[in-house]
Automatic annotation (TrEMBL):
Organism annotation: Erythrobacter fulvus
Cytochrome c domain location: 79-178
Keyword field: Electron transport, Heme, Iron, Metal-binding, Signal, Transport
Protein name in UniProt: Cytochrome c family protein
Signal peptide region: 1-22
Biased composition (Low complexity): 31-62
Entry superkingdom: Bacteria
Region listing for Disordered, in residue ranges: 26-62
PANTHER family, A to Z: CYTOCHROME C
Taxonomic lineage from the root: Bacteria, Pseudomonadati, Pseudomonadota, Alphaproteobacteria, Sphingomonadales
Amino acid sequence: MKRNFLMGAAAVAGLMTLSACGGGAGSDANAPAAEETAAAPAAEEPAAPAEGEATEATDAAATETADAGAGLQLAGLTGDPAKGEKVFALCRSCHVLEEGVNRVGPSLYNVVGRKSGTVAGFSYSDANKNSGVTWTTDVLFEYLKDPKGFMPGTKMAFPGIKNDQDRANLVAYLESQSK
Ligand code: HEC
């Protein structure tokens, strides 16, 4: 699942690279490759030089993105924590983020990176307690789409959030609250 995260980051970084390069060095670098392709359509790797440069540029942009902390990347989506806070309203009837405060569901204090079924004083189902899952952002993204599908036997009575963007925003919010 880490893979998705990386691909997402690369995809967004790629977009940024495209818009950032405008007509400058980017188009200069691409022009020769395009001519080569036209002149020798059978050549095996006509675009290789341009790709090499693009990869470097993408790496640089990816680093910048991470440094700038521009949202959480999930399945190619950027999660917006501010919007996710509103989505968390769906959870509040059963969960709070305060440490040690269990309601219908266990406290979600520091939930990102936490092992499942480990909140003291909460009576979990066996399914949740023994799932062996660690609540990474990727796992939460999957779980919250369809909790009972992801974890058969869970007693969390919540149908899930089908909208990927809403879910990415929510997970970004949970992550922002888990540091
Ligand atoms: C109707 C009440 C209810 C709602 C609404 C609800 N949950 Fe839960 N949640 C629970 C219960 C109960 C459990 C414990 C499940 C078990 O033991 O099988 C749980 C478990 C969890 C766990 C596993 C925690 C752990 O320590 O392993 C996570 C993560 C979680 N919920 C996140 C959410 C999020 C995020 C939302 C909002 C999108 C949400 N839940 C909405 C009741 C709810």
